Amino acid sequence: MQAAQANISQPDILNGIDRDAVKGLLQACTDDAANAQTHWHVLTTWQGGTRSDTHVSFYEAGGQRIDKDFTIRVDEPLELGGTNQFANPQETLLAALNACMTAHYSIAAAMHGVHLEKLTIETQGDIDLRGFLGIDAGVKPGYDALSYRVTMKGDGTPEQFQEIHDTVTRFSPNRFNVATAIALNGELVVE
User: Fold this and answer.
1) Is 97 exposed, middle or buried (CB count within 10 Å of its CB: 0-12, 13-18, 19+)?
2) Which of 15, 80, 107, 132 suits a disulfide with 76, CB 3.0-4.6 Å?
3) Whose CA is closest to 75, among 35, 104, 98, 47?
4) What pLDDT does residue 9 have?
5) For residues 89 and 141, what is the distance between their CA atoms, to the nearest angstrom?
């Protein structure tokens, strides 16, 4: 019985990340680029006023459809015509940026063998409502810049933490999407 138990390998988990699974994904994507292809999809439905619900029903990875069932609720604060029931689109955008980077930091730390004790990301930015409200055409409707502070604590060296930070800076999808102009193709359908 003990010999059989010895042959059962335990997953290599660090920071809640299955390092063997990540290594397997890296290898699968290296071996065949088709395994690296993903497709993301959401459907947002107006709920009245400034409220909307975004439903996540699936995504695709490596040609496989993976079903999901999540709803992201969004509203505006009272001062912007909303009911302040949920985070607003800007807070949701910043949360999505932080969440993507958080996942990447925890994976990168695990892959570098660094045990994390703490990881926080604080992000902020300013929007001049004159742009959003169409009051002044010379004012952008969005951010000029976003600032974020990453705080990490763990058993890594300062050099390891810097390497982890550099990895996230280079490869986080949402950081890339926010920091880089990407094509945004819109289509209007009137029923």
Assistant:
1) buried
2) 80
3) 47
4) 80
5) 13
Instruction: Determine the pLDDT at residue 2.
Output: 55
DSSP state of 144: S
Q: What is the pTM of this model?
A: 0.91
Query: Over 60: is that where the pLDDT of 24 sits?
Result: yes
Paired with 72 in beta bridges are 54
What is the amino acid identity at position 175?
Answer: R
Of residues 3 and 53, more confidently modeled: 53
Report the C-alpha gap between 43 and 185 in whole angstroms: 16
Question: How many residues appear in the chain?
Answer: 191
Q: Cα 128–171–101 angle (5° rounding)?
A: 55
Q: Using an 8 Å Cβ cutoff, are 113 and 90 in contact?
A: no
Structure tokens at 143: 């951010």
- The domain segmentation of the chain, as residue ranges, is 41-86, 88-181
Report the pLDDT value the prediction gives residue 5, as an integer from 0 to 100. Answer: 55
